[in-house]
Design a protein that fits this description.
The complex is a heterodimer of chains A (263) and B (268). Chain A is an all-alpha fold and 263 residues long. Chain A contains ten helices and no strands. Chain B has helices at residues 58-65, 90-95, 112-122, 128-141, 157-169, 187-202, 214-220, 238-243, 248-258, and strands at 20-29, 32-42, 47-51, 73-78, 81-82, 97-100, 175-179, 206-210, 223-228, 231-237. In chain B, the strands form two sheets. In chain B, strands 6-7-8-3-9-10 form a six-stranded mixed beta sheet, with helices on both faces. Chain B has a four-stranded antiparallel beta sheet with strand order 2-1-4-5, covered by helices on one side. The radius of gyration of chain B is 19 Å and the shape is globular. The chains are: A mainly alpha (263), B alpha/beta (268). Chain A binds chain B through residues 155, 157-158, 160-168, 171, 175-176, 179-180, 183, 261, 263, and chain B through 66, 68, 91-92, 94-95, 97-99, 101, 103, 105-109, 118-119, 122-124, 153, 164, 167-168, 171.
């Protein structure tokens, strides 16, 4: 039976979809539903997680993320400006910092600041400070690269126009260049917040007290105390999505808006 | 659509015009020498047009005057400022020198009025109210008072360029530099920009203009300077340099510019 090219393409799509459906079905058949429902979908026993997962878990996750973002944004801006500086030493410092903190796992940074600082200096920072510094320092490295791209995307003529009106370099950067750069990097910056939200889960390594629990730690705690298997983690995961999906939608909105104004 | 000639409620500012003096100016990019010893005097209130083929160094010369380019050698005086003195307060000097770019370079995140007030408030420390008044008067002066609340991307190229002129004028400059102000414009909006520049010239502003608009240069310029290959080839009264050029290179350039469709027949 001879088929036209278009028919062949269509048939091939149907075959692909068929394989996909069969694979899913096989997976569902192979699953031990009895065990799963007792250990993952055991929603009957998670009552004690509420309202703590809101009042401590979600709230702390948001606070940790916000603290990290504030430090990350200011540090990132400083690093981006250093990376674009005409002074080579600044460029080297910024490059070294960025490569280092992007190259090591965030978990190690948490351990370094949570356990290393007390060992080295004999001071125990409050947990919020540890989170702010470690999350912020990792975020700064990523945000710096994003902002650098944004600063470089502002046309050179903007700086020339500002300078020719008598603005000193710093003033031109603050009033003319940086606001335009931020507008350009709003979508990738929103994505950085999403990554940061998830990275905030890593502070479980620091040994938190109950009032300091964020979503992941809250879920892990539930595993050992509720006898519902992994169900508490599933709940915690859902709470992450409640935060990250709206952010993702927001980023997409920023993207389409800047695509429109660019024409 | 010539909405340039409007009444000027802000009153025409008295122009304090500054002169420019350039001596033996040299500028290189690596081994490429772009300006090979330029000397040029512009008297207060004078309008001088720089003409010449692309790559002749006219724009570089203009950009050296407000130090957007650092000259390698030579001296530039602008008003009371030694621009080439390493100790000069560049920002203070630039307040006296308005610059208009080929690509307008309006600030896209600010509306038209804010474009004209931002440097007034941040640099000259004028109050917002005073700055608004001065900006509005200068927007009227270029015929665009009704567009104060628009954003740059809502304006035509010619309107953007006139806003750029109003922005520069709002700083009360004593000298205006124009770097090919009409080269990026649609032909039908060129006239409005030139009309504003003509008006400025009549008000006694010192103007240094890089342009390819020969008719404008001939009509408005007191003097025309023809540059080629980084040197001044010929300069003098506009009528004479454009109407009856003496140097072969000037003659050749003007023939090409004034009659671009002319086809040279090779001689044996």
């Amino acid at each position: 039976m001879a088929m036209t090219a278009r028919q062949r393409a269509k048939t091939s799509l149907y075959v692909q979809a068929g394989i996909f459906v069969v694979a899913i079905a096989a997976l569902l058949l192979a699953t031990d539903w009895k065990t799963i429902s007792a250990n993952v979908f055991n929603f009957g026993r998670i009552g004690p997680m509420f309202p703590g997962i809101f009042t401590a878990g979600l709230v702390n996750t948001l606070i940790y993320t916000a603290l990290g973002f504030i430090v990350g944004l200011s540090g990132g801006l400083l690093l981006a400006l250093m990376k674009l500086s005409t002074f080579p030493l600044y460029r080297w410092i910024a490059t070294g910092y960025i490569e280092f903190f992007r190259g090591i796992p965030a978990l190690l940074v948490f351990i370094a600041f949570g356990y290393g600082v007390p060992l080295a200096f004999g001071v125990q920072w409050p947990i919020f400070v540890v989170v702010m510094v470690s999350l912020g320092m990792v975020a700064a490295a990523y945000i710096a690269e994003t902002l650098r791209a944004g600063l470089q995307a502002v046309p050179k003529g903007q700086l020339e126009a500002a300078r020719s009106l008598g603005m000193p370099q710093w003033r031109a950067m603050v009033t003319i260049i940086i606001p335009q750069a931020f507008k350009i990097v709003l979508p990738p910056l929103t994505n950085e917040i999403i990554l940061l939200t998830k990275d905030s889960s890593l502070i479980y390594v620091l040994g938190l007290t109950a009032s300091q629990y964020e979503l992941t730690k809250f879920g892990r705690d539930g595993i050992s105390s509720l006898g519902a298997g992994l169900t508490p983690l599933l709940v915690a995961g859902a709470f992450y999505l409640v935060v990250t999906i709206p952010l993702s939608l927001l980023a997409r909105k920023f993207e389409s808006r800047s695509a429109r104004t660019k024409r | 659509m010539n909405d340039v000639e409007t009444t000027n409620p802000g009153g025409t500012q008295t122009v304090h015009a500054a002169g420019v003096s350039i001596k033996d100016l040299r500028k290189s990019y690596g081994s490429n020498e772009v300006l090979k010893g330029i000397s040029l005097e512009v008297r207060p209130g004078e309008v001088v047009c720089l003409i010449g083929p692309s790559g002749s160094g006219k724009s570089t010369l203009l950009r050296c005057v407000n130090l957007l380019e650092q000259p390698n050698e030579g001296a530039i005086q602008v008003g009371g400022f030694e621009a080439t003195d390493p100790d000069v307060d560049i920002d203070k000097m630039r307040r006296k020198v308005g610059m208009v770019f080929q690509q307008f370079n309006l600030f896209p995140h600010l509306d038209v009025l804010r474009n004209c007030t931002i440097a007034q408030t941040k640099v000259l420390k004028r109050s917002q109210g005073e700055a608004d008044k001065i900006a509005q008067a200068n927007l009227e002066r270029v015929g665009l008072g009704h567009l104060a609340k628009r954003f740059p991307d809502q304006l035509s190229g010619g309107q953007q360029q006139r806003v750029a002129i109003a922005r520069a004028l709002s700083m009360n400059p004593e000298l205006m530099l124009f770097d090919e102000p009409t080269s990026a414009l649609d032909p039908e909006t060129v006239g409005d920009v030139l009309a504003v520049m003509r008006k400025l010239a009549r008000e006694g502003m010192t103007m240094l203009v890089v342009t390819h608009e020969m008719a404008f240069a001939r009509e408005v310029a007191d003097r025309v300077v023809f540059m080629d290959g980084g040197v001044v080839v010929e300069e003098g009264v506009a009528e004479r340099v454009i109407g009856a050029p003496q140097q072969p290179r000037t003659q050749e350039f003007l023939r090409r510019v004034l009659d671009p469709t002319h086809i040279e027949v090779a001689e044996d």
